[in-house]
Design a protein that fits this description.
Elements: H1 6-18, H2 21-28, H3 32-46, E1 51-52, E2 59-60, H4 62-89, E3 94-100, H5 109-119, E4 123-129, H6 132-141, E5 146-150, E6 161-175, E7 194-196, H7 204-216, E8 222-225, H8 230-238, E9 244-247, E10 257-261, E11 268-275, H9 282-293
Parallel strand pairs: 3-4, 3-5, 7-8
Antiparallel strand pairs: 1-2, 5-11, 6-9, 6-10, 6-11
Helix pairs in contact: 1-2, 1-4, 2-3
């Protein structure tokens, strides 16, 4: 098995460039005798003479010239590997995988991502739109590094960490001709209505919050349908299947509908940033720091 090490290549390169053992020894702060011994060991291991010692000034043999060319490639590759490892440690190169859901992030979320890409141009950023329930599983599986999602429910909260970025109020989505579609709504006045709710597996935090608010108001909601996406919720309310409660809507909700905030001070859901501590590296840390500085973008 070869005992050759990178230091042997560096010693050889120094001697080849200086043309003498004494000059090379001074340049790399190694004793001349030790350096001469190392080069001799290298030649014995290779079974090839690298230097012509017949003249006063050392000269590379033909074999030595080829070995120098190849050694330089190895040393350059080694230096590059070291530099890349250090840049990775500083979070300057690598990959960042972000999970998000369109109903939770604001219109300026894209600006935040562009800013991160500008600051770290050699980091590959992967954005995946995922329902909140799926983001939790993705964090646990390691397929995403950071999630912009809803509050993480138990038992997953024991393995994941999260912090609240902002609150989204809950609105009652009603037909425009509904008797309560004229201002903020008291939830107890909806106790006789049929509810169209996003399925719990899609949005567990929103589903649980609505059920809890209804319970606090003294009733259990009559659930008419459990679609998996918000657009389907709105379509079913338009079709007369019932009323809905959704996080505040920033876009058009559709003809024939209106949205009014619930009167309860507890009628909100959190937008959070979540991550799995064992999988967070310097790149994810840098992104999370940027998010904390730029909450207005969400």
């Amino acid at each position: 098995m070869s005992k050759m090490e990178l230091r042997h290549l560096r010693y050889f390169k120094a001697v080849a460039e200086k043309g003498s053992f004494s000059g090379a020894a001074r340049g790399i702060f190694v004793s001349q005798s030790a350096l001469s011994e190392q080069i001799a060991d290298l030649e014995r291991e290779l079974g090839v003479p690298l230097f012509d010692r017949a003249e006063r000034k050392l000269r590379l043999t033909v074999h030595g010239e080829i070995f120098l060319q190849e050694s330089n490639k190895v040393l350059e590759g080694s230096d590059h590997a070291v530099a890349m490892a250090r840049r990775s440690f500083r979070g300057e190169v690598g990959m960042l995988r972000i999970g998000f859901f369109a109903g939770g992030v604001g219109a300026r979320f894209a600006e935040l991502i562009r800013r991160f890409r500008t600051d770290r141009p050699e980091v590959q950023v992967s954005l995946t739109e995922m329902r909140p329930g799926a983001q939790t599983q993705a964090l646990l599986a390691g397929s995403i590094d950071v999630a912009i999602t809803r509050r993480v429910a138990e038992p997953f909260a024991r393995e994941l960490r999260s912090e609240t970025l902002r609150h989204h109020r809950l609105d009652a989505v009603l037909p425009k001709d509904h008797p309560l579609a004229s201002g903020p709504v008291e939830l107890r006045k909806l106790s006789s209505e049929r509810f169209v709710l996003c399925a719990r597996e899609t949005a567990p935090a929103v589903f649980d919050k609505i059920i809890g608010l209804c319970s606090d108001a003294g009733f259990s909601p009559q659930i008419a349908a459990l679609p998996v996406v918000r657009s389907s919720v709105l379509m079913l309310v338009q079709a007369g299947e019932g009323i809905a409660i959704l996080p505040e809507l920033h876009d058009t909700i559709g003809s024939g509908l209106s949205a009014w905030p619930l009167k309860s001070k507890e009628a909100f859901v959190e937008l959070v940033m979540a991550w799995s501590p064992p999988r967070v590296g310097p790149i994810a840390e840098a992104f999370m720091a940027l998010v904390r500085e730029s909450k207005s973008y969400l």
